[in-house]
Amino acid sequence: MHPELIEIMRDQVCTIYRAVTGADLPTAEPATSEAEPSLEEITRSFAELEALARTSPVLSERVPPFSFTPPLDVFLDGEDLLIEVAVPGVERNDVTVECADGTLVISGIRRGHRGSQERPYSGEIPYGPFYRALRVPLPMSSEPTVGLDRGLLRVRLMSLATNKQTQEATPSPSQPQP
Asked: Are 124 and 103 in contact (CB under 8 A)?
């Protein structure tokens, strides 16, 4: 698991603790005799805490969801496929876009207000990891074109027919020019 994700999980635990107690999470002393918990145990415990926080309407109102599935729109643009994904507050370098075996996978992290003294009073906008997979309905190139502008991630997949026409129209450096 990415170290930054562990840090974001810790921030969420602090937010939940603050929402329940009204105080900051005390600094834990490192245990000298106990073994470090496994990553699986940390992930499971975190998921249980997050699920517990969602059962309380008061906590659900004050603590934003940790992970989310961003909404998306899919358009046919000529023979190409254009996918627009709403990811406000996300930086381009925090997003991964992959297309393989007919599936487009978009994942990343929306970071919280690091280093800020702000305390959430009400929280609805999710922070943390996001994931979206989309089965591509047509044969497309596996190399997407990706751009991010004002919170909208735009992913363009060229159809294999358009991609083939572009490659045929562009002579390779080894081909003689007519």
From this structure: no
DSSP track, 32-59: SSSPPPPHHHHHHHHHHHHHHHHH-HHH
Q: By three-state DSSP, how is residue 65 classified?
A: coil
CB-based burial label for 79 (10 Å; 0-12, 13-18, 19+):
middle
Residue spans of beta strands (DSSP E) within 7-151: 72-77, 80-86, 95-100, 103-110, 128-135, 145-149
CA distance 160 to 155: 16
The span from the CA of 131 to the CA of 69, in Å, is 6
Instruction: Tell me the C-alpha distance between 68 and 132, whole Å.
Output: 9
Model confidence pTM above 0.90: no
Whether 128 contacts 113, CB under 8 Å: no
pLDDT 10s digits, 14-29: 889 988 898 888 887 7
- Tell me the two tokens of residue 142: 């596996």
Q: How far apart are the C-alpha atoms of 73 and 55, rounded to whole Å?
A: 31
Task: Tell me if 131 sits within 8 A of 107, measured CB to CB.
Answer: yes
Expressed in percent and rounded to 5, the helix, strand and coil fractions of the chain are 30, 30, 40
